[in-house]
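In the previous chapter we treated chains in isolation. Here, by contrast, the input contains two separate entities that must be folded as one system, with a combined length of 628 residues.
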Amino acid sequence: MAADLTRLLGHELAGRLRTGEVSSRDLTLAHLEVAERQNHALNAWLVIEREKALAEADAADARLAAARAEGRGALDALHPLLGLPIALKDLVSVAGGQCTAGSRILEGYVAPYDAHVTERLRDAGAVILGKTNMDEFAMGSSNEWSAYGPVSNPWNLDMVPGGSSGGSAAAVAAFHAPFGIGTDTGGSIRQPAALSGIVGLKPTYGRVSRYGIVAFASSLDQIGPLARDSRDAAALLHAVAGRDDRDSTSAPVPVPDGLLHLPGSDDEAAGWLRGKRLGLPREYFVKGMEPGVEARIREAVANLEAAGATIEEVSLAHTDYGLATYYIVVPAEASANLARYDGVRYGHSVRLPGGDFIADYLATRGEGFGPEVKRRIMLGTYALSAGYYDAFYLKAQKVRTLIKRDFDEVFGSGIDALVAPTSPSVAFKFGARTADPVAMYLSDACTLPANMAGIAGVSVPCGLSEGLPVGLQFIGAPWSELELLRFGRGYEAITADAPWRTMEPAQLALADDPAGPTPVERAAALVAA
Amino acid sequence: MAGLTRSDVEHVAYLARLRLTDEELVRLEGQLNHILDQYAKLAELDTSAIPPTAQTIEIENILREDVAAASLPVEAVLRNAKLTEGDFIVVPPILGGDA
């Protein structure tokens, strides 16, 4: 019984809560049990807050009981997330809890207030199970740059789940929670969703308030949902999206209620695809793309066409310049954002005898930051330094204009969405890319252009290659999240009978072994081999 | 091939307030030059007539009412500081000497 509950989708659990078949406490306990049992093998969670989660579950059960007593209308008015477990990436502030951002420099830090998304989740009545592992300050594509050890992919425990939201992705893929929150600066929601076989959406820049989120690259960072289907991702986006006065970049754009009403019927969801115009950007079939990934994407495109969508090859001519542009703009913004970690007001702090404050800063930051964060701070500081600003930062911002114009032209021509791979490869082994930063950066080649242009993208599972999940990406114009999720839902409907749909992550059972190797031990063994 | 020397790397590390070990300096010198080489690709594009993009979603003049509101309690703010005294955070002296 307990194991069955974790296999249900959020909207299925919500139905059972409303009929009174199960309580939030029951299903919270079921998810906590799996998360606690498997965290030794997966390291997806940096903290599991059992007592707080059960208190939130009891509060949700009380709200459900009150609504049930009041009648049908009151039950219908409850948010679909009420009483359902969620995993938060450990850069979302939850008052009174840790918020490490995967870094030693924030070890022991206690968040003094709730992030906007935390407040919205509390209003909806979601149950926060804990905080998930991530690349340090969200810098990475494999979760191997976490100061707290790597995360195993439930499909193959010797492999990465993607990153930087690798903990949330692994937790949702392993049935520890139906919902996860991630952040996406260059692909950090979509790429781990693809590599872990789940749905992940990066909303339009400005869709979700970043108040209370640890900042990385402020002109790109966005918060978004991870879930096991498009309907659940839509419900979670609905809960957290919308204008918030405390983040001046959050946009006063209405959040569509349609996010709560994606079709349950496969016929209706598939029928919506008829007559839609999908653009296939030829530059996204990049050099170095794995043949197995390309084959799954081409099959998915053929399925969409067979369902009545029109496929048109389009060109995003500046795609090849995205990576270089991104790796100037992002380190520049990161180096400025991370200047705040000075060891004075909070966080790791070294005070050397002698009272030389610069020596204190040097020591605090030298000890507190890990290798990828140092690399990006160095790149950003260099790119912004006197004499190089025009050649690097200003140049990159101009190329950013060209990248954005490519998208504007395609969407201006009447294309409803672009369809493309999410990642050029499936999950890779621990250590495969850590020695070569450029190889790691290439993991995001298909996702980072949407961040540069500020537009939305969603990754949905589209089958397996070499036994590992492949992600199909839909990219849309600003504020097109509902349409993107309808494409996702439509694709789910037309592939509802595909055998891979019902397959569970291949090595999930291994994660139950309390004596098996941890991800740290697996990674060390692979490096030694 | 970008030409960042060891002493350039040390200088940037000082500007960024990062104390790096010799091993880190050696590794970063190679890696930063390799990454900077990738940037050279951007020189292919003539951008002389292209305006820069700093912010993608054109929302301007977002203002709020200028009204007083409660801020965090002092205890909550001080809780994470390593050194405090009364209602203050003890900061390192920045004006030098024994002043």
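Chain A touches chain B through 69 residues (CB under 8 Å). Chain A has a mean pLDDT of 96. Compare these points with the single-chain example from earlier in the chapter.
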